[in-house]
């Protein structure tokens, strides 16, 4: 391992420790990391080697001095105890003053784009392009906030354009399954592109990927709360107008609903950034509530599937729902990992997670058996191919996750191995979605 790689690993460990202990928000960590790197560069220019420069620079980070003391106690082998001594005044790191104005401007621009698209695009084309009309604005927000390099900005922009060309140039058959498949998987590809801007272009960093996993879970929480609030407010307003004999259904469907949906995407992201410490208290609690509930549901579902007779004849809609449940299981696992301190010893919740993953594996195995039997009898279709690929991707992820969790529960390995596995495997989901968008439609003649 060369010196530059070792220095990057040390910075990643410092950043991950700060964020896991919820001392500061991710955005402040970004600014503090920039400050840390500047300190390291200055010290290295003065003749210190990378290790010495890193340790002295951390000592000077007065804002997290108390946290650094705790880190010193857990990492005494790196001589932190000798270097982390007294606090210094904070450097006044804060959020940009005009961030909300930028977000509102992007919301207005995105809403105007969606509103124009509603007028000029046919319905099926609009469905395919829905996220292409909104997520680029979210990428712009994070690109501005993280100060990404021009090279990263050009790469992400080119990827957005390429995805848009594929979605719109392919000669899809109206109401064909490949069109629906692309409409489902293109947003996943675009979300990963947003992730590249969220991590400031440092996608190769495992801790940065974990930051993005954490953000995704928190964004889902806030977007759901905002969506529910908007739905209640809209319902009350529509009821009030209805009592006055005024119909506002067209206004809601053509104006309010699309504009609100667009705003929620961007505002939820801003709220996660602005109020992160609050969400970090909510989302892990939700994860701990839904993990045992989902495990029980999966066990009941597995027993029902196995005892129902010929599983090959299971209804197609049920198979789709089961795949969605498995994706939810993966989401619960990812967010629980992102919110956990890897230095803590195994506890009851870790055992519940292991039960959840093992049960999900069993359900996935039954799903693969069903699909293999159907493919052998009726041949490949676009839907079966995509479902088979998804279940194989999930099988690999969940199998190794179960192995690592079992070792952790038995205290044979640390929890950081499970965390590394998930961050290393994360790009596989984006690559799978990209392969589906590019390859599946032509393989099945765009039908």
From TrEMBL:
Stretches assigned to coiled coil: none
Segments passing through the bilayer: 100-118, 124-144, 153-173, 179-199, 219-246, 252-273, 285-306, 318-339, 351-373, 385-406, 426-444
UniProt xrefs under InterPro entries: Perm_prefix_1 (IPR047928)
Keyword Ribonucleoprotein found: no
Taxonomic source organism: Gordonia lacunae
UniProt entry keywords in alphabetical sequence: Membrane, Transmembrane, Transmembrane helix
UniProt-recorded name of the protein: DUF4153 domain-containing protein
Lipid biosynthesis in keyword set: no
